[in-house]
Amino acid sequence: MMIILLGPPGTGKGTQAAAIASRYGIPHVSTGDVFRQNLRQKTPLGLKAGAFMDRGELVPDSLVLELAESRLKEPDCQKGFLLDGFPRTAPQAEALDAMLAAAGKKIDHVLFLTADDSVIVKRLSGRRVCGSCGTSWHLDFNPPPPSGRCPCGGEVIQRADDLAEAVEVRLKVYRSLTGPLAAYYEKRGLLRRVPGDASPAEVEARIKTALETPP
Ligand code: AMP
Predict the structure, then answer these.
(1) How close is the Cα of 160 to the center of ligand 1, in Å?
(2) Cys-Cys link to 46, which of 39, 176, 205, 211 (CB 3.0-4.6 A)?
């Protein structure tokens, strides 16, 4: 199964992506996770992407496409994958279609997770992550260890792009560049809308139904 998970930041894409990937035995490919890992390791890619990420802006398409193309060529992606956070612009969506077509493949489903802005802002402002391994918590729903340390020993921090100013930029960027992709996939009959304003378990059940019910 080749699935794209689309939706504004803060709709729980990362949590749901991990659940879907494990249910269907496909790799979870998150361009954001790959950039963050590169940033922690201070690789040239991470350093180039980091400044854009901290401001809440998109990393340039050329960098993203290079990364996506090489990841999707790896053996574990040949039978299927779950894309989380990619594509995010029309040129990325078109490049992905071309990449897959060249290999005789195509996307099966595009899940579009939706939520109101008020829910999004609450989720993002309360999110805390481990600066070392990336585990994530929420101050209200799943508080981090009171010691301020992750079980791995890393420090619990707030992501720079979860600060109010960057969240505002991310939502603006989402609306102008990524939101229009819903129409792109709807025209192709691939879009499944899933309301993300419920508990992770409930959203997971909605996604299962959306994937397993013919359109
Ligand atoms: P995410 O974890 O998916 O919210 O991604 C975090 C940040 O990584 C984004 O705000 C962007 O700066 C960058 N990023 C991740 N994926 C992409 C993409 N497909 N295109 C452009 N920038 C991206």
Answers:
(1) 13
(2) 39
